[in-house]
Amino acid sequence: MPLPPASGTGLYYAKAAKSIRLIRQGCTNRPFFHIAVTHRRRLNSQPVIEQLGSYDPVPNIYNEKLVALNLERIKYWLGKGAHVTTPVAEILGLAGFFPIHPRTYMTAWRNRQAEFERLAKEAEASENAQTSS
Amino acid sequence: MISHNALLKRTWPVIVQYAEAHRKPRWVPVAKSKIYRIPKRPEITEEERIELLRVNNNYKTQMRAIRRFYHEEMIKEKSTRESSSSEMSQKLEADDWQRCVEINDKWNAQVALEREERRKKELAKMEEYALARMEAKDRELKERIEKASQEIRKQKELSKTFITPENLDAAIDHALANPVDYNFAIDLQGNQYLGRESPAIPPKHKTTPKAV
């Protein structure tokens, strides 16, 4: 018997809860994710119902993280009442399909804060160097 | 542990590695060094907390609306699919199909024309290539024949001077009558200096008989 395809088996229980989530498909030290719909209580290593896209978290030579989404099928599964996990919701938010996820805002403002603090520290250090010399 | 029979009768291939495989079994207690460890809670300022709450509330409200929209859309689509068997919609569909067929035929004709042109071009190219190859082959063959015939002519010319059984004795006599001495000197310009002052075969030193 061949292995179940990573693009999904198309088999599912109608009344079981579904979730749209990231399924890690890369190898060691090289993450790569499929965005797939699967039963909510299933492990990520088990066959999925359907693949809805892919996400490559490693930036390519143009400093892009590539995402592919099958929006039609995502709409279909949302209509069926599928849950969406946070990482996928973030991706969909950045894609403009959902509103921006709160976590995206949070990371953004925390990064901004850290950057401001770093700049302030640098300015202070340079000032100190000037006064001492 | 999975029984052998269950393993053989499985419908899905066994997935070998689970996340649990890297972890402690459920019955193993907390490590002694970690009993009194209290994990640090994330520190969130009051300002940030309020902002997060606001953003989250907004997000949840919007998501609820989106979910409801897609759910209603699905229901609507289902109902239209069920009601699409009416005569009106069938006629519309048939018209649409007819239009599609016409467009498809037009495209096919255009593509066929282009294909024919392309094929003609390709055929002409192939012919040209084959002719060029044939010409090259002919030229090569001719050259080889020419070369061979030249060689034959040369050998025929040379064959006049060959030594055959008939003139073998005469050749031996000639060679004996005219010995050639190759022990000549030569200078930088390549001039030969024939003749020798010493005999070709050096005389043996006569050993003087010992006085008895």
From TrEMBL, chain A:
It comes from the Eukaryota. GO terms for cellular component: mitochondrial inner membrane; mitochondrial small ribosomal subunit. One of its GO terms (biological process) is mitochondrial translation. One of its GO terms (molecular function) is structural constituent of ribosome. InterPro entries: Ribosomal_bS16, Ribosomal_bS16_dom_sf. It is found in: Mitochondrion. Keywords: Mitochondrion, Ribonucleoprotein, Ribosomal protein. HAMAP family: Ribosomal_bS16. Belongs to the bacterial ribosomal protein bS16 family. This is Small ribosomal subunit protein bS16m. It comes from Galleria mellonella.
Automatic annotation (TrEMBL), chain B:
The keyword Hydrolase does not apply. Keywords: Coiled coil, Mitochondrion, Ribonucleoprotein, Ribosomal protein, Transit peptide. Residues 131-158 form a coiled coil. It comes from the Eukaryota. Transmembrane segments: none annotated. InterPro entries: Ribosomal_mS26. One of its GO terms (cellular component) is mitochondrial small ribosomal subunit. Its main location: mitochondrion. It is found in: Mitochondrion. The keyword Nuclease does not apply. Belongs to the mitochondrion-specific ribosomal protein mS26 family. This is Small ribosomal subunit protein mS26.
